[in-house]
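Re: the 367-residue chain
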Amino acid sequence: MSTLTPHTEIINDLLKLAVDSGVSDVIIKANKPGYVRLAGRLKPVEMDPITSPEAQAFVDEHVPEVFRQKWEASGQIDFAYAVESIGRFRVNAFHQRGLVSIVMRHIKSTVPTFAQLGLDFASEALVRLVQAKDGILLVCGATGSGKSSTMAAMLNWVNQNMDKHIVTIEDPIEYTFQDEKSLFQQREIGLDVSSFDEAIKAVLRQNPDVILIGEMRDRETFETAISAAETGHLVFSTMHAATVAQSLTRLFEFFPPEEQIQARRAIAGSLRGFICQKLIPALEGGGRVVTNEILTADAVVKNLILEGQFEKIQGILEGSGDSNSYSFNKDLYRLIKAGKISKADGLRFSPNPQALDMNLKGIFMKT
């Protein structure tokens, strides 16, 4: 006989349905049926509404004790939730109009490979980037664009091929790694260390070769990443930015105008590359296809950053003849020509649809 409380049983049933259907996210709004995001589209589930007391009781029952005071004080919390035989989920619970809402993201149990993520074309550039002995690598994109999965695949390549000590700082932990050639220390905010700031300050004393910082969230975090890069560590992190150009702009927003020259020196010296990505509906078979924009910070790119000539970097992405740096439009062109996405979706997701449309007509601008 089940020992689960009724509200937990209802939500577990919803999670099982979601995992069985390949859903990425489950959204629960009090007094509404559950909603799921499948291949990027939001869909309601045929079920009775989840009441406000049920949503409230689920969070109250499953929020880790160490987070309880924060949940009660702030009305929002992140934590991990695991169900045997169903899976593990990243949970964000919050209040809206006085009622509890819950968003749950399925965390895959096995760390994906480049091939499983559809990153075959990008794998050469990604492997080259992760072999850097130090510096900062940033994986960028909107929420739900697969940043964490791409970063996990990169770390897993390191794990399988290099002997490194890897320390991760996550809120919460998403993928769990099994030590192969490398040794992992995965620290979850709230459970293993009281705060993100405390974990950041301590990480350089933990003898890492590689550091994963879940998100580049503020100046202090970025300055710690620069310090780590300058002292021989390779730092992985994510940012919410749509393109390489936007990502670079975001980095400089951490610094006031009077510190921009100093910031250019620091960023030019430590940056190894940006990987920006989007997920686009697949032309066949449902699901989504990943498209990337990758900038490898070679000597030319570093010099442009140092001189503040950011507007020239897009030309490098468009004009590069190798696979180490390329623009979204070049990758979208490839995907459309390969029959993996539709022309309409390629144009819709392109940061410069007019240029992509010309490319598809055989017209390419010289850079």
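The radius of gyration is 22 Å.
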